[in-house]
Write a structure and sequence with these properties.
By secondary structure, this protein is an alpha/beta fold. The chain has six helices and seven strands; from the N terminus they run αααβααββαββββ. This is DNA-binding protein.
């Protein structure tokens, strides 16, 4: 079940998030796919028809708890892992630069360390460390989230509209072992 001939820009956009077959589209809504730079309504219409011909469909709703201006793919299912959910939501909100959502995930006194051993404190500092505005982002791929006790880590890739990519790895420490704890320390690579 290969992708139909949707044009080079749309095909390349899907390739940036590793979608090469029709069945890989089913976890996403049509609106999610439209967020990819290079995918337009005509390509989504063609994909919809190709999916239906195979008895497949786009998802009816996103599995994310809030709307994003860019497509989010990867390790998104958190099942029964509250801290993985917090890390997922924090990553999305930080690239969106959404202070309201970040407040739900981070402690007020969050400390952020960067590769040059600088320490930064607070939400505004975290937002200023993101090197790209949400309007420049086509997709966020969360490759993996691991959590255990007070600790978590995640890595992934941000693809900009111009096709360039930012790879990241982060390590998070939570305030406590409790399932409703917020992130208190972040190391960003």
């Amino acid at each position: 079940m290969t992708l139909p001939n949707i044009g080079r820009p749309a095909r390349n956009a899907l390739l940036t998030v590793n979608i090469t077959e029709l069945k890989q589209l089913t976890p996403f809504t049509a609106q999610d796919i439209l967020k990819l730079h290079g995918v337009g309504p005509k390509a989504v219409e063609m994909l919809t028809k190709a999916l239906e011909a195979e008895g497949l469909y786009f998802a009816e709703k996103s599995e994310l708890p809030f709307s994003t201006p860019f497509m989010v793919v990867g390790d998104l299912g958190c099942d029964n892992a509250p801290k993985r959910r917090v890390v997922r939501d924090y990553l999305i909100a930080s690239w969106m630069q959404d202070q309201a959502q970040l407040t739900k995930c981070l402690s007020e006194e969050v400390t952020i360390e960067t590769t040059n051993s600088e320490s930064h404190h607070g939400l505004e500092a975290l937002i200023s460390l993101r090197s790209v505005s949400p309007e420049q982002i086509s997709s966020l791929e969360i490759k993996q989230i691991l959590s255990h006790g007070k600790y978590a880590s995640a890595h992934g890739k941000v693809t900009k509209h111009d096709g360039s990519a930012i790879h990241f790895a982060e390590f998070q420490t939570f305030e406590s072992h409790k399932k409703d704890a917020r992130i208190s320390h972040i190391t960003i690579y």
